[in-house]
Amino acid sequence: MRYPKRPWKKSFRRVPSAIRCKLEEIGGSPLKVVGERKVPKDEIARGHFESLGISLNSDGALVLPQGPVIPPSENGTWARRNREGWTIVRTDLPKVWRSFSHEVPNFGDYSRGTHDYTYERECYQREVVPPLGAAVRIALHEEREDYFHLLFELDQVLLADEKMFDRLLLFCLNLMQESTGCSDVIAAHESLAEIAAQRHIDWEIFPAGSREARDRFVERVERLSHERQGEVKERYQFLRSLGPVNWVFGSNLGSSAYFGAQFADDVVVFENINFGNAVYVLYGDWEEMSKLSRTELLRDWDSYDRIVHSEGWERRLRFAVRRALGDAC
C-alpha cells in the first residue's frame, strides 16, 4: 500500500534520546504522548491534515474535528496498525515445528481426485498484536497570520511499569509523529495547554530574602503532598545557601512549575516543583530559554547544565554556579 507523502519525518526506529531524558524527568509517573506545532496555513491548505479532520473553510478559517480522531489506515503504517493490529515475527525466540497441509492431485492427475498432503517444518514464532485504537485530540492554542499553533494529545495513558511499556511508547510516538509531524511526552496529570502557555510566561523577580519571594514560594508548594513539600523545601534551602541575588517566579500562580534562583544577569538555576529529577543551570538569555520545553532545551546543550538529582548533585551544582561566576577553583 502506498501512503501519502508528508513534509515531515514519519517515524523512529527507537525512542529518541530527548524523549528518554524526558522520561527521566517524569520518573515513574503515568504519562501521555502529545505534540504541538506551529503549522503553516499552506500545509493545511494542501491537505496534509485532512486525515485528522483539520481543514480550512472557504473563508480561510480553521476547521477542527469535534472530538478525538482515530487516524485512518490510509494515513500510514502506524495508523493501519493502530486500527488493524499486526504480526511480529519473533526472530529472538527459538523456532517451533508447524504443520502445513495442501490439497494435491492423486498420482499427479486431478481427474483421479485429490488428497491432503501434510508436512512439518521449523518456523519462527509469531506474535499477534491487537489494534490499540488510539485517537488524537486536537485543539487550537494560538492563531497568527501565517500559522496555527495546534496541540495534539493521544487518548492513551501509559504506565511505566506496564510489561509492554517500551513497545507501547514507541508505537504511540510513531503514531503521533506520522499523523502530525511532532511528538513528545508529558506526565499524565499535566496539561499540554498550560505547558504551551508557559512559553509566554512573564517572570517576576524578587530580591533574595524578601517577604514577597517567600510568599510566592509558599503559594507554589502548599498544594503538594507533605512528603513532596519537604523535598522541595530542602532544595530551596540549598539554593539559598549558594547566595542568589534574586528569586524568579511565573507572574501567575500555577503558570509555571519552575522557580529560579538568579546569581547573575546571565546565570539562573531552575528547579521544578511538580516533578523533577534534575536541576537546570541556564546561561545567557535565560528568560527566553526558560520558556522552552525540556525537549527543545535539550537540543541546545551548550547553553545550560543539567544536573541530575543523584548522589552528590549539591556538590556538582555548587561547582557549576561558581564556575559560571568565575569563582571555581
SSE diagram, text form:
Blueprint: H1 17-26, E1 31-40, H2 41-45, E2 55-56, E3 62-63, H3 77-84, E4 86-90, E5 96-106, E6 109-123, E7 125-129, E8 136-143, E9 147-154, H4 165-180, E10 184-187, H5 192-197, E11 203-207, H6 211-221, H7 226-241, E12 246-250, E13 258-264, E14 267-272, E15 278-283, H8 286-289, H9 294-299, E16 304-308, H10 313-324
Antiparallel strand pairs: 1-9, 1-10, 2-3, 4-7, 5-6, 8-9, 11-12, 12-13, 13-14, 14-15, 15-16
Helix pairs in contact: 3-4
Radius of gyration: 27 Å
Q: Share of helix among residues?
A: 25-40%
Count of folded domains? 3
Structural class: alpha+beta
Total number of helical segments?
Answer: 10
Low-confidence stretches: none
Mean pLDDT: 84
* Sequence of secondary-structure elements: HEHEEHEEEEEEHEHEHHEEEEHHEH
- Report the biggest beta sheet as strand number plus sense, adding barrel if it closes: 6 strands, antiparallel
Strand portion, in percent?
25-35%
What does it look like?
With 329 residues, this protein is of the alpha+beta class. The protein has 3 domains: 17-82 and 133-188, no CATH class; 87-128, no CATH class; 201-324, no CATH class. The chain is 29% helix and 32% strand. The protein has 10 helices and 16 strands. Strands 11-12-13-14-15-16 form a 6-stranded antiparallel β-sheet. It has a 4-stranded antiparallel β-sheet with strand order 8-9-1-10. A two-stranded antiparallel ribbon has the order 2-3. Helix 3 crosses helix 4. The longest helix is centred in the middle third of the chain and has 16 residues, at 165-180. The radius of gyration is 27 Å and the shape is elongated.
